[in-house]
Design brief:
By secondary structure, the chain is an alpha+beta fold. It has helices spanning 58-62, 123-131, 133-140, 169-207, 236-239, 265-270, 353-356, 360-369, 380-383, 393-431; strands spanning 21-24, 29-31, 47-50, 54-57, 75-77, 82-85, 96-99, 105-107, 111-116, 145-146, 152-153, 163-166, 232-235, 240-243, 253-254, 260-263, 275-277, 285-286, 306-309, 311-312, 321-326, 331-334, 338-343, 376-377, 387-390. The strands form ten sheets. It has a five-stranded mixed sheet with strand order 14-23-19-21-17. A four-stranded antiparallel sheet has the order 2-9-6-7. A two-stranded antiparallel sheet has the order 1-12. The model has no long low-confidence stretch (mean pLDDT 94).
Length: 433
Amino acid sequence: MEKQKGKRPPIRFSEFKDNWEHKVLNELLYEAKSRNGDLKYGKDKVLSVSGELGIVNQIEHLGRSYAGVSVHQYHVVEVGDIVYTKSPLKANPFGIIKLNKREAGIVSTLYAVYKVNKKTAYGPFIDYYFSLDANTNRYLRPLVKKGAKNDMKINNAYVLHDRIYAPTLSEQQKIASFLSAVDEKIQQLTRKKELLEQYKKGVMQQLFPPAGGQAPKLRFKDENGKAYPKWEEKLYEDIFSFYTTNSFSRENLNYETGEVKNIHYGDIHTKFSSRFEVNEEVVPYINANIDLSKVKEENYCKEGDLVIADASEDYADIGKTIELIKLNKEKVIAGLHTFLARPNKAKMHKGFSGYLVQAPYVRKQVMAIAQGTKVLSLSPGRLGKVKLEIPCTEEQQKIASYLSSLDTKIESVATQITQSQTFKKGLLQQMFV
């Protein structure tokens, strides 16, 4: 690439005025050629490069080491080194470039390792620059030649032969320091969310019986300080009635216009909150050309209904359920690979059912009745025989209120994380050339 005139990013710290220079990457980095010949690092120190997590210990990340018989020819990676992985990812077809922030280790010869020229470059700045997919792909595309097996045909030294725009070392450090502070905030929020989720999990274990026929360890009391009645054991089918759902595929749905919305099982697995509010979720419409005249009124969803995903590839998600808390009078039906379960409203407080079916003793029963090898499935008949412990409606209300308050806190932190990530993405796009 020919050297271009200097440029400036749209967002910049006010004390810096000079244009960014169009520098060959080998002015900022140089190839590290240290090998693990003395076997200082064993297979437990082999590193992997992840698009999301960066450079991580392979065993911690993947569960085991994938190293060859010998690791004596592996590249040594020190903290602060830059690693280029010559493996295509969906968003990065020419590989990714990451900074080692955690611990020293080794990588296979399929990787290239570089040192940072401390006179001209700051490692975290380089890392942030290449954290943008557009920057990584734009830089590597002219350099990399792909082989017949989609492998990368590029010499380690040649990786450094193109150019990027870079400011002075002091501006690099200021940019990286600012973005690191944003990352730290995201990490703090993520940890806060994890702690709230752990707390909720512990509370769930206390508020619901450890097994059928047993009493919960933690009970609410009535307004007079007296204990509520003993929980009653009921079958799922004693409390819930099952209704027919549709079999429309994604091809029959759209996100732009329609009169009836459709809850797809895939969205239950990946997107929807267990406390479903239609105005808070992105729910597809059924295409206008689909005839819905044969859908009975009873098969339209109602508030308090459960929609259960009856198919999954793993036990953790089989029977995953959402409770419909708010529908705002919109027409909604449950779709492909779901059950619609409607509770007896005289026995169930709205908002409680969704937590009840998440209780560990209920989940254990659901996983036990799942059938299949590659794809697990449930049937209403089998689900109907699951045993449930049911408290009185007043105690249900208190349990649901307490757990929903925790969910509100968790969702609030999740929103803050998303907002911070969006803020960071905008900064990355505006603070680099």
